[in-house]
Amino acid sequence: MGYSVGQVAALAGVTVRTLHHYDEIGLLSPGERTRAGYRRYTEPDLDRLQRILFYRELGFSLEEIATILDEPGVDPMTHLRRQHELLRRRIGRLQEMVAAVDKAMEAQTMGISLTPQERFEVFGDFDPDEHAQEAEERWGGTDAFEQSRRRTAAYTKEDWLRIKEEAGEVVRDFAAAFEAGVPADDVRAMDVAERHREHLGRWFYDCSPEMHKGLGDMFVADPRFAANYEQVAEGLAVYVRDALHANAERRS
Amino acid sequence: MGYSVGQVAALAGVTVRTLHHYDEIGLLSPGERTRAGYRRYTEPDLDRLQRILFYRELGFSLEEIATILDEPGVDPMTHLRRQHELLRRRIGRLQEMVAAVDKAMEAQTMGISLTPQERFEVFGDFDPDEHAQEAEERWGGTDAFEQSRRRTAAYTKEDWLRIKEEAGEVVRDFAAAFEAGVPADDVRAMDVAERHREHLGRWFYDCSPEMHKGLGDMFVADPRFAANYEQVAEGLAVYVRDALHANAERRS
DNA sequence: CGTGTGGCCTGACGTTACGGGAGGGTCAAC
DNA sequence: GTTGACCCTCCCGTAACGTCAGGCCACACG
User: Fold this and answer.
1) Is the CB of B17 under 7 A from strand D?
2) B97 touches chain A (CB under 8 A)
3) Which residues in chain B are closer than 8 Å to A91, comparing Cβ atoms?
């Protein structure tokens, strides 16, 4: 019953030391121990190890893997879909690199030399998402940004759809309250603001009330964000900011 | 003229510290320095950096990259072909993983649970080459084995063809001398043995005369290797061993 | 002509994900 | 009942950087 470290190591193609390490940092602790202190790995442990190795191979850090695996309420199927999506992306990236190599070969045979930009473009625009670059410039290096980047890295298309739906719901509720003439510091508006904050915490990063206030300011100051609300209703951006502020005051 | 660290870092999407590090370890030292000591990267430096990042992305260690890049007599085209080959392999591996995920999804929806072996098989047979596993068992952990593994990791199909051809030539020459009645300790036989040793050094690992002798012994003792020679001419394995021994004596 | 301000320099210590060995217990087998 | 394979827990080492700290350098601006 159960597998010893050596057996698991041989099975999974890792060293015993690696398993010890995963135990040390709490990433994978064997379900049982013999009275002599020997590690005994159970079937679910193997399952978890398989996932660990998978995400590791795709370049995730062990800490990231821990948060991915310990996300509450994710069934095996979600993991598989996520893995599928990640593989697809990674293969796409490698195919881009193939294209770049092909281009370089062509240039080489033609005797043309590439510009520095051309040479690095496959490395440069790591994510084809312009928003990500903007975010980097604004919040680059902050904890929140890092946390967000790490978490979103593993989201599937379906995750994103759910996020969009949730976000849309919040905006609609804000708009409804706004048009109904509910004051921004009314509990009803503040409750929506709080849901917005929770939404961020669930999907992106832990957003303190203080940070949430700053975010509200930006919704007004930055036309790119403001447009998101203004196109729903004129004056909504300011309303949302006020609601976030009011909610932050209430929370602190 | 030339690029500063910051410019290169921005261009290539790496940090300044990374470039400092590469300079420290001698992997990429800027072609010039200003009188104030500022690094100035030239066009060839960018070229080299691009290759470094390429091989790095594919999982090579910086030490391995250094040996790959500093291999004498490799033109840009060879690198490009090699990169193409590596990408192809890597994509193939990822596609295997996709297949494994698909299988797991199927099993999941069917309610079947996979055996431990099935779960890890995509990680297990890391290299589909049975010879590599045998080699690991015999020489696992030795410097020569490590060196060989590192170097061969980057060989293209064309490299392997050339290796095979070279090796075949040596065997034919051994066979010719053997059948012509040339004694194994004759200079002509010993010269072929020396060429064999150089062949190993060029493509696999630095083979000392002492190691070469051991290798000769194995050609006789291990039927798997012996067959290689015996199928060319009966008694050739022993002849080759004797030639390797004689040459080793001469060399020491 | 001083004075920021941003970029660059060299240490030097911190971190991640293990590798590898010392020193010592455990256990099935001969 | 001892031997060899396997396991344990420290503990130090390594690779590839991250992250300051303390101090030049260079050029724009008043």
Assistant:
1) yes
2) yes
3) 91, 94-95, 98
User: Which residues of chain A does CATH 1.10.490.50 include?
Assistant: 157-251
What tokens were used for B173? 């020459």
The whole-angstrom distance between A130's CA and the closest CA on chain B is 15
B131 touches strand D (CB under 7 A): no
Residue B44 contacts A where some CB pair is shorter than 8 Å: no
Residues in B closer than 8 angstroms to A117, CB to CB, are 11
User: With respect to CATH, is domain A5-58 assigned 1.10.10.10?
Assistant: no
Cα distance from A11 to chain B (closest Cα, Å)?
7
In contact, A60 and A53? CB cutoff 8 Å: no
Q: What is the pLDDT of residue A129?
A: 37
Which CATH fold would you assign to the domain A157-251? Answer: Globin-like (1.10.490)
| In contact, B236 and B178? CB cutoff 8 Å | yes
C-beta separation of B45 from B31 below 8 A = yes
CA distance A33 to A31: 7
Please answer yes or no on whether B94 and A87 come within 8 Å at the CB atom.
Answer: yes
CATH class of B5-54: mainly alpha
What's the CA gap between A154 and A85, in Å, rounded?
A: 9
Nucleotide nearest to B61 in CA–C1' terms? D15
In whole angstroms, what is the distance from residue A54 CA to residue A83 CA?
A: 8
What is the mean pLDDT for each group of 10 consecutive residues in chain A (252 residues)?
A: 91 94 97 94 94 93 92 84 90 91 85 76 50 46 59 68 77 89 91 86 74 72 63 80 87 70
Task: Provide the phi-psi class of B73: left if phi over 0, else alpha when psi is between -120 and 50, else beta.
Answer: left
pLDDT at position A74, please?
Answer: 80
